[in-house]
Amino acid sequence: xxxxxxxxxxxxxxxxxxxxxxxxxxxxxxxxxxxxxxxxxxxxxxxxxxxxxxxxxxxxxxxxxxxxxxxxxxxxxxxxxxxxxxxxxxxxxxxxxxxxxxxxxxxxxxxxxxxxxxxxxxxxxxxxxxxxxxxxxxxxxxxxxxxxxxxxxxxxxxxxxxxxxxxxxxxxxxxxxxxxxxxxxxxxxxxxxxxxxxxxxxxxxxxxxxxxxxxxxxxxxxxxxx
Amino acid sequence: xxxxxxxxxxxxxxxxxxxxxxxxxxxxxxxxxxxxxxxxxxxxxxxxxxxxxxxxxxxxxxxxxxxxxxxxxxxxxxxxxxxxxxxxxxxxxxxxxxxxxxxxxxxxxxxxxxxxxxxxxxxxxxxxxxxxxxxxxxxxxxxxxxxxxxxxxxxxxxxxxxxxxxxxxxxxxxxxxxxxxxxxxxxxxxxxxxxxxxxxxxxxxxxxxxxxxxxxxxxxxxxxxxxxxxxxxxxxxxxxxxxxxxxxx
Lengths: 226, 249
Hints:
- The complex is a heterodimer.
- By secondary structure, chain A is an all-alpha fold.
- Chain A has a single domain (2-224), classed as Orthogonal Bundle (MetI-like fold), CATH 1.10.3720.
- Helix content of chain A is 83%, strand content 0%.
- In chain A, helix 1 crosses helix 4 (92-118).
- Chain A is flat, with a radius of gyration of 21 Å.
- The termini of chain A are far apart.
- By secondary structure, chain B is α/β, with parallel strands linked by helices.
- Helix content of chain B is 44%, strand content 23%.
- Chain B has nine helices and 13 strands.
- Chain B has helices at residues 2-23, 50-62, 73-82, 96-100, 142-154, 164-173, 183-193, 220-235, 238-247; strands at 27-31, 40-41, 47-48, 66-70, 87-93, 104-105, 110-112, 114-119, 134-138, 157-161, 178-182, 197-199, 208-214.
- In chain B, strand 2 and strand 3 (47-48) form a beta hairpin.
- Chain B starts with a helix and ends with a helix.
- The relative contact order of chain B is 0.18.
- Chain A binds chain B through residues 72-73, 76-77, 80-81, 88-92, 170-172, 174, 178, 181-182, 184-191, and chain B through 74, 77-78, 81-82, 98, 101-103, 136, 139-141, 144, 159-162, 166, 169-170, 172-175, 215.
């Protein structure tokens, strides 16, 4: 254990940094995708709703490891070799970010849709009857209430996504699991290495959970003062 | 009465246990998923290849039973180490570093070098052209070590993937400029699968023998059986037939 920490400790820490970087990129774009698709799925416009439905079902229906192989190996191959356009290469970070953003975005869209639908229809009707336009009612009345119910699910999704980065070890992104596999095959000490890796994930996720608790408490305080 | 029943039950359990122990002489051997022509699944999903046939011939010669499971390369290493498997036959090069870490190897059954390949039509003609580019290798292999030994001199980065087909796909797709893998494996993929890669001349290392490997000293008898079996299939011509079957020489 000590040997792994002293020799490969810095390498594993760098890998943890890469994991966080990938998770951060992925979550940033997932939030944007989730927000857009989530709102599209509650709009009156039929085309928007159908698009959102297809997107969510397509992504949720494909395991992330398959999505990762498809994006990293499949898309450049299709683009360069089948279509003969050429010149497209995706780095593991780019492919990983796309993969996380799509996967987490789809789940986020569902959380946002559920959050908006959980707000009583009367709220929107009241706002509209007071003369507020649709988007302003959405922005000022419905979303502030919806976000409160969404926060715990969104934090949960963040944690799941952080752990899902480990799936992207299969496309060679040097995140924690990929690096750990490398350390295992160099040292042939698999139990010790995986124990260290599990501990590292645990620490990061516990920190994230504490931060989430703080945010939730602050939001609750806001509700009482209303 | 209750006591009698519990004694009978305990005896039954002991009996079951001893039967289970007596039957556990079936060795669990693990291998890689796709390392053509040493091991790969044929059209029906059956594992075939040089390693698979050599193991079958050795087992027949020595009269031991085994089950062969294709776990994949790094999972095979972990399974042997954890004692979940008795041994592995996966085109594993016999190296001093591996022996120092506790692996016990059989006699070599095939000699292979590692070399570099690039996408067909690529302009890369040697290590010097790799500067600033990415190179794909399979996690934990001799080829990975070989690439690591060169990366600082020639200023390239190394990407670690899980299997040989993944490594080749990364080069074909353009995510990596070149790959390092065992020469006979790449030659076979290029020849029989039409994988659009080309070997780069003059990039091979000295190479090493492939061996059957076990992790703990109490598996020594399995290695001894393998060595004895290997010697006799080499003597009776079976070994040459197997190589001929897959390498077509």
